[in-house]
Amino acid sequence: MDERLSDVLTIEELSAYLKIPKSTLYKLVREGKVPCRKIGRHWRFRKEAIDRWLEEGHGDTRDGENE
Questions:
Q1: Distance (Å, whole) CA 23 – CA 46
Q2: pLDDT truncated to tens, each residue of the chain (67 aa)?
Q3: How far, in whole angstroms, is CA 5 from its chain's centroid?
Q4: C-alpha distances out from residue 2 to 38, 48, 52, 61, Å
Q5: pLDDT at position 5, please?
Q6: What phi and psi, each to the nearest 5 degrees, are found at residue 28?
Q7: 22 neighbors 15 (Cβ within 8 angstroms)
Q8: pLDDT value at position 44?
Q9: Cβ contact 16:25 at 8 Å
Q10: What is the Cα Rg of the chain in Å?
């Protein structure tokens, strides 16, 4: 069960995983650009969904460069 729990990341863990500031991550969340769920007041991210999002090129937010 511990292995399954590690598949769900907090905003701090995802910030470290992606090596980006939390402020940037919060901006991406607000804009709906990153797959996430809000549970109460807390954002949670499935590592599998984040990895797929990155592989599909959604992590590149520069205009027109992932088309």
A1: 19
A2: 455 657 999 999 999 999 999 999 999 999 999 999 999 999 999 999 999 999 998 766 554 444 4
A3: 16
A4: 21, 16, 22, 33
A5: 58
A6: -60, -40
A7: yes
A8: 97
A9: no
A10: 12
Helix ranges, 22-61 (H)? 22-30, 47-55
**pLDDT value, residue 14:** 97
> So where are the chain's domains?
2-55
- Residue position matching structure tokens 């995802």: 14
CATH class of 2-55: alpha beta
3-class SS of residue 48: helix
CA angle 61, 65, 67 (to 5 degrees): 105
| CA neighbor of 59 nearest in space, from 21, 47, 51 | 51
CB atoms within 10 A of CB 14: 21
